[in-house]
Amino acid sequence: MMTNRTIRRRALVGALGIGAAAPGLAGGQGRTRRNGPAGAVRIEFAFAAQVFTATLNDSPPARELLSMLPLDLKISDFSSNEKIAFLPRKLTARGAPAYADPKPGDLCYYAPWGNLALFYEGYSASPDLIRLGRLDDGVAPLRRKGDFPLRIERRS
Fold this sequence. Notes:
The chain has 2 domains: 1-28; 31-155, Cyclophilin. It has 2 helices and 10 strands; from the N terminus they run αββββαββββββ. 17% of the residues lie in helices and 36% in strands.
């Protein structure tokens, strides 16, 4: 014979199971943080008293970059629209989503050279560029001219 207590316990356990197995069904779907969707992974860049974050997309190259962190690199000006930093090893290009809407604030990977590209002005999409994510709060920190030591780490 089931008592009210047993029924309440089963209902609670069932609700917890749904929440763990399918967070969207438990009310978590659609929630966003200020800097991206719930569960998005953010990384922090620091150079020359400039500290800013980017939200990574969920792609194999972005996950591979994340697995390399923390990193100490050198960031340099390149052309008139971006800063670049060479990674210690190349990232995979497999599974990278295609994109056709390049914008300032994109965090990309340039596969032929093996470098990060942080764009602060407009640029043209290229099959060799892989978007890894977006800067969270604008491009102003990238406008600081020069070459600097760069620290990249995961932001919790």
